[in-house]
Amino acid sequence: MSIQLSFGARVRKSPFFEASVESGLAAASVYNHMYMPTSYGDPDAEYDRLINGVAVWDVAVERQVAVKGPDAIKLAKYLTPRNLDGLAIGQGKYVPICKHDGSIINDPVLLQIADNEVWFSIADSDLYLWVSAIAGALGMDVEVFEPDVSPLAVQGPKATSVVSNLFGEWVKELKYFEFCEASLDGIPLIVSKSGWSKQGGYELYLRDGTRGYDLWKRVFEAGKDDDIGPGTPNYIERLESGLISFGADTDAKTNPFELGMDRFVDLNQENDFVGKDALIHLKGNGIDRKFTGFFLDGPRQSKPNEHRLRLLQSGNVVGYVSACGYSPRFGKNIGVGMISLEALRSRDPISMQDTEKIRHVEAVSLPFNWGGQITSRTAL
Ligand code: THG
How many Å apart are CA 348 and CA 354, to the nearest integer? Predict the structure, then answer.
C-alpha cells in the first residue's frame, strides 16, 4: 500500500509528536484515537537497539483511564477477573478486562495511585466508555476521566543506565511493574519498571502534556554515552517474547484462557466481577482454540503482514496467524495466532496462506523457548 494517513484534529497527537518527528519518524498507526509511531525507517537498527542498547518509544497512546473517589478500588475489583486483594500504591498489575460473556476487551496495566485513585493504562479499545458505563449503572461514587498523562518508554539492556542517570540509583531497586512519583527539572512524572518488551526498561509517565519535548530531550541527553536512539513498540521482539497485542491477536470472542492468561483470572475469589459466571462456564467446558507460536518455512519475510493469515489443515481453515516476521534470534520466520486444539492434536501438516505463497507451519507453545530444545508440537 502506498496511501498516506491524513492528519486532522479528530486523531490526537502525542506530547512527544514534535520531538519524534524531529528524530526521524517515518510511519505511524492509530491507537486509542491517537497517532502511534511505528517506524523510524530502519527496522533492523531499531530491533538491534532494543536488544543490545537502549531505545526511546513514544507510547503516549497508552492512555490512562483514571478512576477517582471512595469506590475506586471497589470498582477496579469489579472490572477485572484478576484478584486485586494485594493491590498496593506503587505496584502495578497486568489485568485482563472481560465483558459479561467472558471475552476480553482490553488488557491494561493497573496502577494504584492513591488510596482513592487507580489508573488503567490501556491497550487499543475505548475502556473509558466501558468503565464510565459500569460505574454509572452501579451508582459507584467515583469520577472516571482521562488524565493528562503520557508514557514514554525507555527499553533495552542499557535503559537502567539512562534512567539512573536521570533520577538516581534508586530506580535500580524498583521491582517489575513497581512505580514511584518523581520529577525532572520540574517535569512531573511517574517512573515505572515496565514496558512492552522483555529486554528490560522503564516507562516514564509524563504528567504534563506541555513538557513532552523537554522530557524527550532530557532522556536523549542522558543516554548519549549509551548511544540512545528512537524506537517503537517492536513488532519482532514482541513476537519473540510472546507478548499479547490486543486487537491484533484477539477477536470479538477471544477469552483469557485461549490467550493463556489463566494466572490472571481468579475464579475462586469471593469478590464478584464482570464475566465471572461466563468465565466459570468457559473454564469448565475447556477451550477449543489456543494462542500459539509458529515457525514458518520459506524465504525471509521482509515486512509485517497487513491482515490475519489463514491457517489450513487438510483443506480446512483451522485458525489464523495474527502477526509474523523474520526473527534474528531464531534465524527463522516466526508468528503468533489462534489455532484449534483439534488441529494441534492431529498429525496432519499445517500451512499458512501468505499473500502469494503457502508456508509450512510448525506450531509451538508460547512463550517461544530459545534456551535449548525447541518445544515441539507434541508438547502442547
Ligand atoms: N505499558 C503501559 N501501558 C500499556 C502497555 C504497556 N498499555 C497497553 C498495553 N501495553 C497493555 N498490554 C500489555 C501486555 C503485556 C504486558 C503489559 C501490557 C506485559 N506482559 C508480561 C508477559 O505477558 O509476559 C508480564 C505480565 C505479568 O507477568 O504480570 O508486560 O506495556 N504502561
Answer: 19
| Domain boundaries defined on the chain | 17-62+148-238, 64-145, 242-379
Confidence tier at 373 by pLDDT (50, 70, 90): very low
Ligand 1 pocket test target in 63, 87, 94 with most atoms within 8 Å of CB: 94
> 321-332, pLDDT tens digit by residue?
999 999 999 999
pLDDT greater than 60 at residue 379: no
Ligand 1 pocket: which of 149, 206, 243 to mutate (most atoms within 8 A of CB): 243
Tell me the per-residue pLDDT of 186-213, one tens digit each, with 9 for 90 and over: 999 999 999 999 999 999 999 999 999 9
Instruction: For residue 364, give the 3-state DSSP assignment.
Output: strand
The domain 242-379 having CATH identifier 3.30.980.10: the answer here is no
Q: Give the model confidence (pLDDT) of 116-127 as tens digits.
A: 999 999 999 999
- Domain 64-145 in this protein, CATH class: alpha beta
The cell numbers describing 193, all together, are 519498571
Candidate of 31, 34, 62 to mutate for ligand 1, largest count of ligand atoms within 8 Å of Cβ: 62
Are 17-62+148-238 and 242-379 equal in CATH topology? yes
Select from 234, 172, 237, 231 the least CA-distant residue to 202.
172
Q: Which residues pair with 289 in a beta bridge?
A: 340
- What DSSP character marks residue 321? E
Question: Is ligand 1 within 6 A of the CB of residue 150?
Answer: no
pTM of the model: 0.95
The alpha carbon of 245 and the centre of ligand 1 are apart by a number of angstroms equal to 9
- CB neighbours (10 Å) of residue 277? 13
**Does 123 sit in the ligand 1 pocket, CB within 6 Å?**
yes
Distance from the CA of 108 to the center of ligand 1, in angstroms?
7
Q: What superfamily would CATH give domain 17-62+148-238?
A: Probable tRNA modification gtpase trme; domain 1 (3.30.1360.120)
